[in-house]
Amino acid sequence: MNLTQLAQTVEYHQRHGKEMQKLTLTYPNLTVEDAYHIQKKTIQRYEDQGDKMVGWKMGLTSVAKQKSVNVEEPIYGRLTDGMTLSNASLVTKGLIHPKVEPEFAFHINKELKGSNITAADVWDATAEISLALEVIDSRYKNFSFTLTDVIADNASSTKYMLGSKRFKATDTDWSAVQVSVSLNGTEVQTGFGEAVLGNPVNAIIELTRMLNQVDLSIQPGMIVLSGAITEAVNVQAGDCLTASFSNLDTLSLHVHD
Ligand code: OOG
Ligand code: MG
User: Fold this and answer.
1) pLDDT tens, 185-209?
2) Which ligand is nearest to the CA of 160?
3) How far is the CA of 166 from the centre of ligand 2 (A)?
4) Phi and psi dihedrals of 241, rounded to 5?
5) Ligand 1 contacts CB of residue 205 (under 6 A)
6) Which atom of ligand 1 is nearest to the CA of 69?
């Protein structure tokens, strides 16, 4: 098994929006550590071609998400500038089976590193928080994968959009924020910020801890998505998805082909 070659395979299927078989069908002994290596090498390939890494995402930080994909532990992924959606519009061309999830985005302005950082450390390092929509699109058939597979596919990362407002990190109790997701005017998901590991700040603590195990850290200037508050919502061309976050803001995403 050649991790460099597997990274090339993953990149190809991501770039072309092509379904692939689970890597673990061919390589049942693939470890979580191998999978994070594949993820890292895949993103290096994007960087070699001009993309910039702009942040991290946590995934599977809520019970709703864990149950929906049958993988019961948090994972992380890497975000590049090429994943940014800046105009509330998602083009489905080149995507396989996109889904959208409501999230919080932490704007980090101080390095976060170590195995035992606290919530106070995270708040101190967080310049601001944005509301966000993440578009995930697993490259695996039927959106079905194991823990190792999904890590190798960069935690299904595809696109993300930040709301235009930025909030001071400690002005809001993020665990109490209620999100309501509607598809074409019908509410399809609701949840509270506390669904994310009790408080989204815990996702940043967990990410710092996981990165520290491989001697990495969250660098100043990075954004971090803390993980979906609700289950992800399937979208297709013609849809309009909105997510209202208490009285803070409503984000809309128009889906086109
Ligand atoms: C894995 C990515 C999960 C989240 O916010 O929980 C994720 C998946 O569900 O395909 O991004
Ligand atoms: Mg997500």
Assistant:
1) 999 999 999 999 999 999 999 999 9
2) 2
3) 19
4) -110, 135
5) no
6) 9
Q: Which residues contact 46 (CB under 8 A, 6 or more apart)?
A: 11, 80, 82
Mutate to test the pocket of ligand 1, among 56, 58, 60, 189 (most ligand atoms within 8 A of CB): 60
Mean pLDDT within 80-103? 96
pLDDT of residue 1: 83
Contact (CB, 8 A) for 228 and 62: yes
**Residue of 81, 20, 74 lying closest to 203 (CA atoms):** 74
Backbone angles phi, psi at 240, to 5 degrees: -125, 120
How would you write the chain as a 3-class SS string?
A: CCHHHHHHHHHHHHHHCCCECCHHHHCCCCCHHHHHHHHHHHHHHHHHCCCCEEEEEEECCCHHHHHHHCCCCCEEEEEEHHHECCCCEEECCCCCCCEEEEEEEEEECCCECCCCCCHHHHHHHEEEEEEEEEEECCCEHHHCCCHHHHHHCHHHEEEEEEEEEEECCCCCCHHHCEEEEEECCEEEEEEEHHHCCCCCHHHHHHHHHHHHCCCCCECCCCEEECCCCCCCEECCCCCEEEEEECCCEEEEEEEEC
CA distance 156 to 30: 18
Express each pLDDT in 6-37 by its tens digit. Answer: 999 999 999 999 999 999 999 999 999 999 99
CA–CA dist 245, 229 (Å, integer): 11
Q: Whose CA is nearest to atom 1 of ligand 1?
A: 155
Question: Nearest C-alpha to atom 8 of ligand 1 is from which residue?
Answer: 156
Q: Is the Cβ atom of 155 under 6 angstroms away from ligand 1? A: yes
